[in-house]
C-alpha cells in the first residue's frame, strides 16, 4: 500500500524519502528507484493516478502549457515584440501581431503601430494573456487577441507558488463589491476593481489607458481582504482555486482585513473555510 492510499489528505514528502515499496506501481516525475523502492527526488506532494506515482514540487518555476491563462508584467519593449515576466525560467514573448490593436483585430500591423508600441504596453504594465505556443528555446509566446485579455488596471498583484494554483474551467471571477480576481496559472494573481465599462464598450484608446479609476474605501477593504486570504493560503500550502478562495473570503468576514495579518486569526479563518467545503 502506498503512502498516498493510507492518508485521506495530501501526502507531503521530503527529498530521498521512501514513498512505497510496492512493485506493481510505476514511478513518474519527481521520483527515482532505489533497490525496489520508489523514492522522492524532490520535496513535494505525492500524487497517484492509477498505478503512476509522481511528486509535485512545492517550489518550482512555472512550466506553462498552451491555453494557460497567465498574468504578467512587461519587462522590455523590443522590435515588434514585448518581453513579459510570466514567472517562468524565461520571459514570455508578446508579438505585435498577437495583440488586439485599435481599429480591428484582423487588420494588418503597420510601421506606425511599431513606432507606437509604448502607447499600447510599456515597461511595468500588467496584463493578462493566454499561452499560444512555445519557441524552440522554450520561451512562451502569448497573445491578447480576445477582449477578455489585455492591460490590467485598478488592482494589486499577489504572487503565490504556481504549483498551488489549480486548473479550472475559468480563471476570471467576481467576488463581493464588484472586485474581480484573475487567477493566473503562473502564480501571479490580479485582484482589482471591476472597470466601469466592459471591454467591448470601450473606445480604442481606453483599452490601453494608463489611468486607474477611483477606488472607494469599501472596495479597497475588499481587495485587501482577498489579498490577505490568498497570501494566507499560500503560506499554509493550500491549493488555490475560486471555490477555496470564496470559502476563505466568507470565513474572514468576522474579522477586519488588518486582523487577517495575524497568524492565529488567519489560521482560524482557513480552518473554518476548509471545514465548510
UniProtKB/TrEMBL annotation:
SUPFAM superfamilies for the chain: Eukaryotic type KH-domain (KH-domain type I) (SSF54791), Nucleic acid-binding proteins (SSF50249), Ribosomal L27 protein-like (SSF110324)
Pfam families named among the record's database cross-references: ECR1_N, KH_6, S1_RRP4
Biological process according to GO: CUT catabolic process; exonucleolytic trimming to generate mature 3'-end of 5.8S rRNA from tricistronic rRNA transcript (SSU-rRNA, 5.8S rRNA, LSU-rRNA); nuclear mRNA surveillance; nuclear polyadenylation-dependent rRNA catabolic process; poly(A)-dependent snoRNA 3'-end processing; TRAMP-dependent tRNA surveillance pathway; U4 snRNA 3'-end processing
GO molecular function: RNA binding
Domain RRP4 S1, first and last residues per copy: 61-132
Domain (Exosome complex component N-terminal): residue spans on this chain: 17-49
Highest taxon, organism lineage: Eukaryota
Stored InterPro entries: Exosome_cplx_N_dom, Exosome_RNA_bind1/RRP40/RRP4, KH_dom_type_1, KH_dom_type_1_sf, NA-bd_OB-fold, S1_RRP4
Name of the protein described by the UniProt record: Uncharacterized protein
UniProt keyword annotations, A-Z: Exosome, Nucleus, RNA-binding, rRNA processing
Homology family: Belongs to the RRP4 family.
RNA-binding is among the record's keywords: yes
Chief location of this protein within or outside the cell: nucleus
GO cellular component: cytoplasmic exosome (RNase complex); nuclear exosome (RNase complex)
Subcellular location: Nucleus
Keyword RNA-binding: yes
K Homology domain sequence ranges: 155-195
